[in-house]
Design a protein that fits this description.
Blueprint lengths: L2 H14 L9 H7 L3 E4 H7 L1 H10 L3 E4 L4 E4 L5 H16 L7 H15 L2 H6 L5 H8 L3 H20 L4 H11 L1
Parallel strand pairs: 1-3
Antiparallel strand pairs: 2-3
Helix pairs in contact: 1-6, 1-10, 3-4, 5-6, 8-9
């Protein structure tokens, strides 16, 4: 998995969608990229076959690139829905074709970075995963992973220097 590629893609989305604050509007971002968004319950009433296909594929969310549809399970908690939507966007932005463990890891990393960039966690003065969960509207599990990664990021920044992607993130949000 190439974190630099994922960070570059995240910054690209922030710039293209003119995102300047958090929490981000996941539906608005998906619509910017041409996706139509449906809940699983909406699909259940409109197209039972598509609903069953989505649910069989994932209990959380489904993306169909050819028809530009993203569907999500609206019975999940809000933080989980937001992560799932950005996970699906990650597949689109990173131009994933087919299923693989690496694609899933990259889409998860993309969702984490776009929902709670490590620099934004820093400037929001988050002290723990609960702060991250609250400020960035993430599930506790996703917030814990983001905060743990933030701690690694912070050690790297202090020990070394900001990468070109850190500088681009800083310039976009805090310059």
């Amino acid at each position: 998995m190439d974190n630099n590629l994922i960070l570059k893609a995240t910054i690209q989305v922030f710039c293209e969608c003119k995102i300047q604050s958090f929490p981000i509007d996941c539906v608005k971002i998906l619509k910017h990229y041409g996706y139509r968004i449906f809940t699983y319950n909406e699909l259940k009433g409109k197209n039972t076959e598509l609903y069953e296909m989505c649910l069989a594929y994932s209990e959380d969310a489904f993306r169909e690139g050819a028809t530009m549809i993203v569907a999500y399970n609206d019975e999940k908690p809000t933080g989980r829905i937001r992560f799932s939507l950005m996970h699906e966007l990650g597949h689109h932005i990173l131009k994933h074709n087919g299923d693989s463990n690496n694609n899933e890891k990259e889409a998860n990393a993309f969702a984490s970075f776009i929902l709670a960039p490590r620099m934004a966690i820093h400037y929001a003065k988050c002290k723990n995963a609960n702060d991250v969960s609250h400020i960035f509207e993430m599930s506790h599990e996703a917030a814990k992973n983001a905060f743990d990664d933030y701690l690694r990021w912070h050690r790297r920044i202090v020990t070394y220097k900001m990468s070109q992607y850190d500088k681009a993130m800083y310039s976009h949000f805090y310059n």
